């Protein structure tokens, strides 16, 4: 094994120990390495793949790689054209770390479940031919009957590619498609997060089916990891996989604000420290949004859903006039506009307001789609759009792929006498983009009892998360902190501790990853 490969492996081990010590990412306890001294983690035949200590550009031909003596790296033969590698183990949800190197103009790919490709490609200083062709792109799907035939490719938000011959990294959280007891698909596969060379390039991207050149055209709960071997010289090393863990958990901005946390800088620092994945801010204009995104990027946090509204009354201003510019600021992040709808003319849930709402939302949806921004309708007690059923009805009428719905626990509890969410979640599920939760009393009727920190209240949160899991939901979950008051750090810390307890039911089956190195 060469020295630089050994150093990378030692650094990875240190990170594992640090993560396990923090106790927050127990996926590391089940970590499974797929590269090492042999091909035991991979199915045969392995063709011309070599186990080497390193791979470097051929000094006489930069379109080829030269393997170096040792072990720990996989190189696809002297010509860079051989069979694909399939892992022995099949996986559903997983977190993966992959290191790779490509020769000049070379091409490969990592296929999750052998069906959904993250592109591995020499993109260094090259223009993009189509979305998804770039290194770390989510490769396009293909249909001979469509025009264009390629569709649903996703370019990286930013280019993080290195020159050919340089080792690069991918860190991916993947969610497998979900199926009901009859085998019917109830949720698409999704790339929750793709980080290329330390840069977040994709967030929460759904895949409606296998990407082009996948090994299988069907979809399953489990499938092997596949390394593409026939498109050009490539080397891989230090590949490991682990359970994906629970859904990403973020906080509303109202939960992160108090006298000591008035700025986005202080709020981002607090959320990062306590282990939250990001925040849901109120929309106050494109410039404040740009400043917030800059600060979130510094702290490796995301803006999951941006709260704003529309007014459906004739003659009223439909929405904040700067919203189209705000959408441009969110471009490429696959962020969500969290849209409530109000009216003085129409009572809550009055279908007479549907036509105007649909008109406004279709216009917004078209502007948002151009910048890879989604819209999730936000049911709010006392507003015209009051219930989840209202949101589903309007989303179906808008009929745009980037328009979905929200389930807000506190508002559902306020307007519904039912305390079993199975039916409403089943109806929302095909379009459910985001969910919000908080501690609550089962029989609560005001906001003090319906919005509490997650460690308080009589509502069965673990049971609710089980229901959410069984419905097939794998998207982000946010903590609603409206009106709780008190110290934001204490509220968020107690809520995170409760989340770590309740969210164990979202881990799913970890048996594909073997015996844990350390019990969770």
General description of the model:
The protein has 520 residues and is of the alpha/beta class. It has two domains: 3-242, Jelly Rolls, CATH 2.60.120.560; 249-506, Divalent-metal-dependent TIM barrel enzymes (TIM Barrel, Alpha-Beta Barrel). Helix content is 23%, strand content 28%. It has eleven helices and 25 strands. It has a nine-stranded parallel sheet. Strands 1, 2, 3, 5, 10, 13, 14 and 16 form an eight-stranded antiparallel sheet that branches. The protein has a four-stranded antiparallel sheet with strand order 4-15-6-7, with no helix packed on it. A hairpin with a 5-residue loop joins strand 11 (178-179) and strand 12. The protein is globular. The two termini are 32 Å apart.
Q: What's the layout of helices and strands?
A:
Blueprint (H helix, E strand, L loop, with lengths): L2 H20 L9 E2 L16 E9 L2 E15 L9 E7 L2 E9 L4 E6 L3 E6 L19 E2 L7 E2 L16 E8 L2 E2 L5 E3 L1 E8 L2 E9 L15 E5 L6 E9 L6 E4 L11 H11 L3 E3 L5 H13 L3 E2 L1 E7 L11 H7 L6 E7 L11 H16 L4 E4 L10 H11 L4 E6 H7 L6 H7 L3 E6 L9 H4 L10 H10 L6 E3 L8 H15 L18
Parallel strand pairs: 17-18, 17-25, 18-19, 20-21, 21-22, 22-23, 23-24, 24-25
Antiparallel strand pairs: 1-16, 2-3, 3-16, 4-15, 5-10, 5-16, 6-7, 6-15, 8-9, 10-13, 11-12, 13-14
Helix pairs in contact: 3-4, 5-6
